[in-house]
Structures are given as structure tokens and as C-alpha cells.
Amino acid sequence: MAPPAQSQRSQSPSQPSGKSEVSDLKLQLRQLAGSRAPGVDDSKRELFKKVISYMTIGIDVSSLFGEMVMCSATSDIVLKKMCYLYVGNYAKVNPDLALLTINFLQRDCHDQDPMIRGLALRSLCSLRVANLVEYLVGPLGSGLKDSNSYVRMVAVIGVLKLYHISASTCVDADFPSTLKHLMLNDSDTQVVANCLSALQEIWSAEASTSEEASREREALISKLVIYYLLNRIKEFSEWAQCLVLELVTKYVPSESSEIFDIMNLLEDRLQHANGAVVLATVKVFLQLTLSMTDVHQQVYERIKAPLLTLVSSGSPEQSYAVLSHLHLLVMRAPYVFSSDYKHFYCQYNEPSYVKRLKLEMLTAVANESNTYEIVTELCEYAANVDIPIARESIRAVGKIALQQYDVNAIVDRLLQFLEMEKDYVTAEALVLVKDLLRKYPQWSHDCIAVVGNISSKNVQEPKAKAALIWMLGEYSQDMQDAPYILESLVENWDEEHSAEVRLHLLTAVMKCFFKRPPETQSALGAALAAGVADFHQDVHDRALFYYRILRYNVSVAERVVNPPKQAVSVFADTQSSEIKDRIFDEFNSLSVLYQKPSYMFTDKEHRGPLEFADEIGNLSIGEATDNVVSSQRVEENDKDLLLTTAEKEETRAGHSQQASFGIDDLLGLGMPAVPNVPSPPQLKLNTKAALDPSTFQQKWRQLPIALSQELLLSPQAVAALTAPQALLRHMQSHSIHCIASGGQSPNFKFFFFAQKYEESSNYLVECIINTSSGKAQVKIKAEDQSTSQAFSTLFESALSKFGTP
């Protein structure tokens, strides 16, 4: 009987069939190492491809190191490249293996083929092993003097790599001086560009410790070097041209004739097909003429056409980059671009990020001569199927209205938006009408006539509802139903989740009360009562302030809450002029795209929310929440504010809590007495609580924030945080377990969880600690909201004991 046929294993090079596969490769490579038979290089290629394939998918093939090196003794450039790739990959993690490659790489550095010499030198410098730097000096010195430009180009970058491995070795070998000589004398422009890039980096790093390096760095922007590079700029690659142009922006000409010479020399660079070269040239023109107002104005006119051409002749990504720079220029000189506003009209097939930027630019270039055309175009966008763009277009119309003097037609357009049967259009229009009335109160009659027909039930967005409430309070004397609309809103106080709306509602009811007291009295009493009991600190404080000032003197309260108002002439800008100037100085960089100076997104103290590797699925990074505390705690902390001096004395003498709140009723407001809050029951936690990360992540996303507070740490606790693991052990001893942690000094982030004893109720905590300020930002989420305050007290107590003996 024949034995059963064995199943065939897949021989795919990316899927090895077993552990013996690597051993088979090793044997085959060894057999081919010394062979000179015809076609042996083709066989080696196939084996090398398998090795590289295995290495790419993470299979350890380091045991083949010796055989790969032996097989590299060939003139086949493809085999050399694959061998260098293999060697570079394993030399970084295994310095002992790197030592074995030195001999054959040094040998290849003297090969007859310049391509092999360059590849070998690049691989040798890419080993990045500190104890092998002595083997780099000789090959680099030879490479810088090589007759082939490719080898010299590689050698220049090799010098920079050597500097980052061992700066002293690089400087002692006098490589910077050699690079300077090459930069000024080499015939190949790519070698010159590499020398310039390497020298800038080396001398900038050395300048802080060496006066000579500082002088050399200044010499790079001398007239001799700048003119030498500019005279050869047409020979450079696009990347090298950008490098040279960036250097030219740092040059300070000694006289105005030099400025014109440089601009004349670079005139044709404005017509270059590459956007980076054009923007770099524009930066040179702008920087050189900053001190020459008239010429600077002419520069704006000159650079306008090339930039507008780039916007319409590239990909959306390039258009956005160029538009961002145009946007910066438009903000500085809108009058220059006012006649070219049609270039900023949105095309139907443009991505939304390009459209949004164009809308901002249309807003900036609008003036008396083009406002009608621009507003007409923007109103067309309000019906756009892209809702965010429709919103932005309505805001743009409002911004134009706020910066123009003749706003008759614009106001009519905004009022038409209010009559459209689209919730988001109505919402945006309400916000804009509010701002319009603050600047142009003379339009109140026309606006209020339309706003009065809008039902508050149909407005759901917080900002829009707040704007409508503001108008109801500010113009309640002109709106017949204003007190009754406000009263209905107060009755639904608990259903309103936005603190901004509740704050506006308090103020609007107060204003309405001063204008129409009989109709608003009950609504004011209900609003103040609800506000004092509100869980949001700002709402609570405002209601308390309004109540106490009414109790003191109604006339004073009216002068404070509803004084005569002057029209707002200028609305605050979101960015200071200093920030804008800083961005302009960083023209042709990411600062322009981000619309913020580089230090705001590079320096640690200006970075966004803390990020760390152990984060569980970006649980709450950047999450914006109201600063919420429990109403019980608010009442306990602020009850003293409700008492007069005499009442405080009575309280100290032992009178009851209710007696201390014996405040006379004001105009029938019916303020309730503050109840005596019982202390919460003692909370007990499960010492053996368990929760897997995926469940934690799911619960964190689903649960609302119960408490958010800032805690102060003791100096002992801050000192103990040099070892964050100590905090994890400490909190675990209090049955509060850490599920993720990370960060580095001074910012640390921890995620804790705890479980209620004999119940499955979970408490989730995000704790961000800054050791510099000694503060901890704590957010707590709880499945059982009623015990969140008790858990907060327990957590605060446990954290306060950290670091104490």
C-alpha cells in the first residue's frame, strides 16, 4: 500500500514554511559564496530577495549575516544594494555584527565603480555605532576628494552623520573646513547644496560653545557667499534652490542697490513651475523690502500674479498651501487683492478645506467697491449641500457686515436667512444678527420684527438660543411676547443642558424685569431659584450675585445689569498683531498653514494635551467639558455668601440652619430656604477589583463626567513622583487601581478605576499631574452618579496622603 501523499508547502518567499527555511537559505548562500559559475549572480539575487522579504515581515534572519557578506563579493550593483540594506538593518541593533561589515564596506569604498563606492560609503556611515567612528574618518576623507560627484555628495552627508554620532571626531578631523572649501569650489551644484545644508546644521549646533563656529555661521550669510550661490542658482535642483533662497532671507544688504540687484537676479524664479521655489523667492522679496515701504507695496503687486497662477494650476493640496500664504498676505494688505476677489470664489469640485480658506479671504478683501458681488456669491453658498461650508458662508456675510459702513443690502440678506426653513441657517443667522445689533442698534426695529416670529422651540443650538435670549432681554420693550417666552424657557430650566444658555437666560430675565416688572416678576423668582440651585458654578454664582444685588437696591441692580450701552465699534481679533508678525517672519513654513508661530507647536510647553504610548484608544484627549461640581458642595461652600453679618453671628451662636436663611422675600420672588445637606454615607471599595482595558475604554466613552476638579499636591508628593510607579502602588493600597499611565516630567497622566464593594458599579478617573505647578486635574465618571461625590472625597483623601511617611 502506497504511503499517503504529503501536502505541499507553500514556497512563497514572503511566507516561510518552517524554521528550516532559514537554515536552507544559509546552506544555499554558503554554496554560492565562492562560486564563479555562469548565472550565479541570478541565483544570488533570488536568494537575496527571499532574505530581504523575510526581514521585511519581521523574521529574524541575522544568522545569515556571514553568508550575506561573503556573497556580496560581486560587481552586481543590485546584489550590493540588497546586501547593504540587510547589513544596515541588523548593524543598528547588533553592534557585534556591525564590526564584521567594516572590512568589506571599506573594501567597497575603493571599488572601481563610483556607484558602488558611494553606496558602500553611505552604508558605512549609516551604521550609527559609536565605537566604530574611527573607521569612518578615512573613507570619508577619501570620499570628499573623490573624482566622482556622486561619491562626494554622499561623503558630505556622511560627515553630517558622523557629527551626530561623535561631534568631537568630526571637528577634530577638520571636516567642516573641508566642506566649506567644497561649497565654494566644487563644480557639482548638488555637492555644493549638501555642503551648505551640512555646514548650517553643524555650525548652528557648535555656535553655542565655540566662537569660531559662531563666526563661521555668520560667514555663511556674507556677501561673498550669497552672491556666489545666487549666481549659480539656476544650476541647482529645486530642493537646493529653496535651501539657497532660505539662506538669502537672512542676509542683510549694506545698501539699497544690493536689494534691487538680488531681486533682479531672482525675478525669473517667480515664474518657476515649482511652488516651493516661488514661495521661497516671495519670502526673499518680502524680507528684503520690509524697511522700504513703497518698494514693499510694489512687491505685493509683483508677487500677486505668480501666486494666483499657482493656486489654479496645481493639486488641491498645493492650492491650499499657496492659499494659506496668500491668506497671510491678504490679511496684511487686503487692498492689494481687492480687485482680484473673483479668484477666491469657490469651485464646486474643490475640497472643503480649500473652500473654507477662500471664504476667509473673500471676507478680508471685501470693500465698498466689491461688497455687493461678494455677498451675492456668499449667499449662493448658503444653500450648499456641504453644511459646514454653508455655515461658514453665512458667517462670512456677517463679518463683512460688521466691517462695512453701508450695510443696508447685507442686513436684508441676513434677515432672509432667518426666514429660510433650515435649522442651521437660522441658527447661524441669529448669532450674526445679535452681533449686528451690538454694532448697529439703529437696525433693531427691522431685525426684531423678524426675530419675533421665530419660535424658541425651533432653535436647538446653544449659541443660537443664547443669541435669541439676548435679543429677548435687550429688546423686551419692543417684543410683545418677550416675558412669556422667557417664562416658558425658565420653566424648562432643567431640560437646558448648556451653561451658556442658562447664563444668558438669567441676564435676559433680569433685563426684562427692569423694563416690564409685573409680567416678569414670577419668571425672575423662578430663574433665580433655579440658578442658585444649579450645579454649574458660573450659573450658581451669577444667580447668587443677582439675588443679593436686588436685595441690596433695585436701582443699583438696574444700573449694573442693564446700563445704557454704546455701539460696539470694533470686535476683538482672535490673534494679536505680535502673533501675526511672528507668522509673517516664518513665511514659507508650516507656521503659515497652522496659522500659529512655530514655538506654539514645537516647544513642549505649547503642545496640546498630553499624549503617551500607553494611552487606551485616545480616551479623552482634548475632551472639552464644563467644570462641573455637585450642587451639594456648591451650597456648602457658598452658604456663607447668603448670610448677613448678624445672621453669621446667629449661626455661630447655635441657631438652626433654616433660621440663618431668614431673608425677606423680594417682590414675591419666593426664594426657597437652603436645605440642611446630610453628609453622604461612607463608601467602601472592592480591594480585588478587575477591569479589562477594552471595557474601560467603552465605559469611558459612554459615561458623562460626574465631577471635574483641581487638587493641590504636597511638596512631598511632587518629590515622590520622580518614580510614578510609587503613586500606582499607593493608590492600589486604597483600592484604586491604575489601568494606564504615561508621560514624562513635568506632565504625567494616569487612568484609574475602582469598584463599589459587593456591587458591580465602577468609578473611572483621569488624573493629569503637573509637577511644576504641583496641581492635579481630576475627572471622575461613575456608573452610580449618586455616590460620585463620596468617591471623589475618597480619591482626594488617598491622593493627599501620597508621599507622606
From TrEMBL:
It comes from Hibiscus sabdariffa (roselle). It is found in: Endomembrane system. Its main location: membrane. Residues 1-23 are annotated as: Disordered. Gene3D superfamilies: Leucine-rich Repeat Variant, TATA-Binding Protein. It comes from the Eukaryota. Subunit of clathrin-associated adaptor protein complex that plays a role in protein sorting in the late-Golgi/trans-Golgi network (TGN) and/or endosomes. The AP complexes mediate both the recruitment of clathrin to membranes and the recognition of sorting signals within the cytosolic tails of transmembrane cargo molecules. Keywords: Membrane, Protein transport, Transport. PANTHER family: ADAPTOR COMPLEX SUBUNIT BETA FAMILY MEMBER. Residues 1-17 have a biased composition (Low complexity). InterPro entries: AP_beta, AP_complex_bsu_1_2_4, ARM-like, ARM-type_fold, B-adaptin_app_sub_C, Clathrin/coatomer_adapt-like_N, Coatomer/calthrin_app_sub_C, TBP_dom_sf. Residues 683-800 form the Beta-adaptin appendage C-terminal subdomain domain. Adaptor protein complexes are heterotetramers composed of two large adaptins (beta-type subunit and alpha-type or delta-type or epsilon-type or gamma-type subunit), a medium adaptin (mu-type subunit) and a small adaptin (sigma-type subunit). This is Beta-adaptin-like protein. Belongs to the adaptor complexes large subunit family.
